[in-house]
Amino acid sequence: MITFTGTKVFFMKKPLILVTNDDGITAPGIRTLISIMKEIGQVVVVAPDSPQSGTGHAITVNNTLFLEQVYIDKDEIKEFACSGTPVDCVKIAIDQIIKAKPDICVSGINHGSNSASNVIYSGTMSAAVEAGMSGIPALGFSLADFSWNADFEPIKKFVKQITEETLKNGLPEGVVLNVNFPKLAEKNIKGIKICRQAKATWVEKFDERTNPHGKKYYWLTGTFVNHDKGEDTDEWALANGYISVVPVQYDLTAYHAVQQLNTWDL
Amino acid sequence: MITFTGTKVFFMKKPLILVTNDDGITAPGIRTLISIMKEIGQVVVVAPDSPQSGTGHAITVNNTLFLEQVYIDKDEIKEFACSGTPVDCVKIAIDQIIKAKPDICVSGINHGSNSASNVIYSGTMSAAVEAGMSGIPALGFSLADFSWNADFEPIKKFVKQITEETLKNGLPEGVVLNVNFPKLAEKNIKGIKICRQAKATWVEKFDERTNPHGKKYYWLTGTFVNHDKGEDTDEWALANGYISVVPVQYDLTAYHAVQQLNTWDL
């Protein structure tokens, strides 16, 4: 399907694009992403049948999975709703639906930012990482607006541009992209910045309540705290009107720590 | 509680140790880990009330959490079973139980290896990563034996040694340790090796079945494939009788890719 000329990749026919997300197959974010991808290639959708935010890289090992072909846009593309996590969706898409590797996997568009350490909690980004681990170029897209009615119109052309550049250039070995968009009108978006992940994390505060039977229960809440003053981070880019693109790796080895650990008395 | 002298840390009183896992609070692996940690410091246990293998870095955002004090070993240590994921356990332990940061967090001992890319799927390791992200030195321990009746006896002295070395030396900023043990008699364990994460992943093969109502469903199965011939990997260490220690980072930025991405037409 593809030919290589130097480092560039030319598609002889339309690329096969796997689309997934973590907000569920009916979310406006994935519907927007599907509409953009249909302009670029042949689209197959395998996405969760229910919201899966915050599922990280969870997989379903102790339960069964259901897969249902669905017809949402009433057009020719193949869409499947899966009862599992976003990572399950990528795995089952490769093994049971496409029965091969797609040319690219795009995940999102997430309702809410996945910048900084959110990349680790994010089902959207974990789906992209899973595709990358299977040798598929992969991108996760997120808009810094948690609303179900978020306006994806201003970012459509950038999603298309970044996807097309990825298809053209390929991605470095072992890398997927975490793309986050600020919540801005198109004319106020200043451009695209290649960034590093900001050192910013959640500080939790659980909300303790008592149920009608007298038993205590908790809701997870928290405050996102950015300790990172760098101007090369995704948080800085988003706060300053830029789209952030962070190359994300899944070899988690802290190579810089190996030497120090080798001095230990082990 | 601690004083710093150069790079060494001396505890003036017993260190406070948070213990968690992903196999559930009654699993023999965590019971072994608790017994070892009681020799080192003051122990608080917050662990899942049910098996949570493969939950990765999932958190519970769309549901409530329950927390129940339990008395398993009938001694003085505080133990809590949590209805959430391993990452939830770490978060709720800090905010609701300890109400401070423990001196160290240990997770496991997992029934089954978390070497290579398994680190990303592992609830055990995600709990350690979560503690690291909160600024707590953290270790995940896993034994390459999935059996509930796995024999943890041969590895007890090594678990103690690695924990004590971590308390003594501290960990480099942004790093937690992924410690995996081969399934061997103590006399056959050759030693401890600092390693990198092997490039080895799962190739999925879903097992398709039909339920009594005629509906298809799937079980996730797969084969673990190691493409990595390096002798500095965790897979090599385990296959050759060594305990593997991989320093794991949670800044996922692929810094080596930034330069290349900056040549794109974005």
UniProtKB/TrEMBL annotation, chains A, B:
<keyword id="KW-0547">Nucleotide-binding</keyword>
<feature type="binding site">
    <location>
        <position position="53"/>
    </location>
    <ligand>
        <name>a divalent metal cation</name>
    </ligand>
</feature>
<dbReference type="GO" id="GO:0005737">
    <property type="term" value="C:cytoplasm"/>
</dbReference>
<protein>
    <recommendedName>
        <fullName>5'-nucleotidase SurE</fullName>
        <ecNumber>3.1.3.5</ecNumber>
    </recommendedName>
</protein>
<dbReference type="InterPro" id="IPR030048">
    <property type="entry name" value="SurE"/>
</dbReference>
<dbReference type="GO" id="GO:0046872">
    <property type="term" value="F:metal ion binding"/>
</dbReference>
<comment type="similarity">
    <text>Belongs to the SurE nucleotidase family.</text>
</comment>
<keyword id="KW-0378">Hydrolase</keyword>
<dbReference type="GO" id="GO:0000166">
    <property type="term" value="F:nucleotide binding"/>
</dbReference>
<feature type="binding site">
    <location>
        <position position="23"/>
    </location>
    <ligand>
        <name>a divalent metal cation</name>
    </ligand>
</feature>
<dbReference type="GO" id="GO:0008253">
    <property type="term" value="F:5'-nucleotidase activity"/>
</dbReference>
<feature type="binding site">
    <location>
        <position position="110"/>
    </location>
    <ligand>
        <name>a divalent metal cation</name>
    </ligand>
</feature>
<feature type="binding site">
    <location>
        <position position="22"/>
    </location>
    <ligand>
        <name>a divalent metal cation</name>
    </ligand>
</feature>
<dbReference type="Pfam" id="PF01975">
    <property type="entry name" value="SurE"/>
</dbReference>
<dbReference type="InterPro" id="IPR036523">
    <property type="entry name" value="SurE-like_sf"/>
</dbReference>
<keyword id="KW-0963">Cytoplasm</keyword>
<dbReference type="InterPro" id="IPR002828">
    <property type="entry name" value="SurE-like_Pase/nucleotidase"/>
</dbReference>
<keyword id="KW-0479">Metal-binding</keyword>
<feature type="domain" description="Survival protein SurE-like phosphatase/nucleotidase">
    <location>
        <begin position="17"/>
        <end position="203"/>
    </location>
</feature>
<comment type="function">
    <text>Nucleotidase that shows phosphatase activity on nucleoside 5'-monophosphates.</text>
</comment>
